[in-house]
Design goal:
177 residues; mainly alpha; flat; two-stranded antiparallel sheet
């Protein structure tokens, strides 16, 4: 038993601590896998409720496009793509011109080119706006109000489950209003 900071753990105490840490890590991994599977099923169900094929929810980037399509905000998706391209190109330009200084691990340590910082900040704000629009329009497409939109923004996993497995019905006509 530890009574002062100078004592060390016995072998049995170290084994117990290791077993507890391993058990905790195992529980976290199992819970994470369970949540991931649940979200895959929820997105599949959400897509099928909206008249899309469920498998489309499994393909990265394409699933986001379909979400924007379901919500009636396809043009916002393309704006998001353009924003990402602008940030990518600006990053290349800033890096090649010495505008960004990185350490040995590739972490940014200094930004010499203020235009790079401005572009990245502007695109981050635009991406946030795109996400807000997606949440609002997705809630509207399932005949839900501002509460669901706010929930999708702050607690996306929980509110995706609510839309997918709850009584919400998809209505494409609502998007045209």
């Amino acid at each position: 038993m530890l009574t002062s900071s100078t004592e060390t753990l016995t072998t049995a105490e170290a084994a117990t601590a290791g077993a507890l840490a391993g058990g905790l890590l195992g529980t976290i991994i199992v819970a994470s896998i369970a949540v991931a599977i649940l979200m895959i099923v929820a997105m599949w169900k959400l897509f099928t409720k909206a008249g899309e094929k469920g498998w489309k929810s499994l393909i990265p980037i394409y699933d986001i496009y379909i979400l924007f399509k379901i919500s009636g905000a396809k043009s916002w998706f393309w704006g998001l793509v353009v924003a990402e391209i602008i940030v990518f190109v600006d990053t290349i330009i800033a890096t090649n011109n010495g505008g960004v200084v990185t350490d040995a691990n590739g972490n940014v340590t200094e930004i010499k080119d203020i235009s790079f910082a401005i572009v990245v900040a502007a695109m981050a704000i635009f991406e946030l706006i795109c996400y807000i629009v997606l949440c609002a329009k997705l809630a509207k497409a399932f005949k839900r109000g501002a509460g669901t939109a706010i929930g999708l923004f702050f607690l996306p996993n929980i509110f995706t489950l609510i839309l997918a497995f709850g009584s919400a019905k998809y209505d494409k006509k609502v998007l045209k209003k």
